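Issue: copy button drops trailing tokens. Both records pasted manually instead:
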Amino acid sequence: MQLADNPGRNEPGTGELNYQFLFKYLDEIGYTGWIGCEYKPKTTTEAGLGWRAAHGVQ
């Protein structure tokens, strides 16, 4: 699975996709595969990684 928000292909939480719902659903169905991030941070790379804590992703 690969992710980027829409519109703009920026980090999760900057667009219209409900990543909290999607990550919860993936947990519920037992998804254990990789999740790749292919997005361009709106500002800096460090700031662009801040979404992980809000969604419980390590």
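Record 2 (pasted manually too):
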Amino acid sequence: MLYLSEVLMQSPEIASFEQLVEKVRERSRSERFFRIDVKPPFQDTPENWEDRLEAAFT
């Protein structure tokens, strides 16, 4: 199971929401499930951030 908090902690180089989306997409290749357990701390995080991250994972 991939947790969003885990992605953020393991990838301190991520500086924007778009980079996070790309990292989630990359990690989806090796994980089966995705759990959103925190809100991304980026200034450019959109209103529909949960939908965007889930779409990137699937």
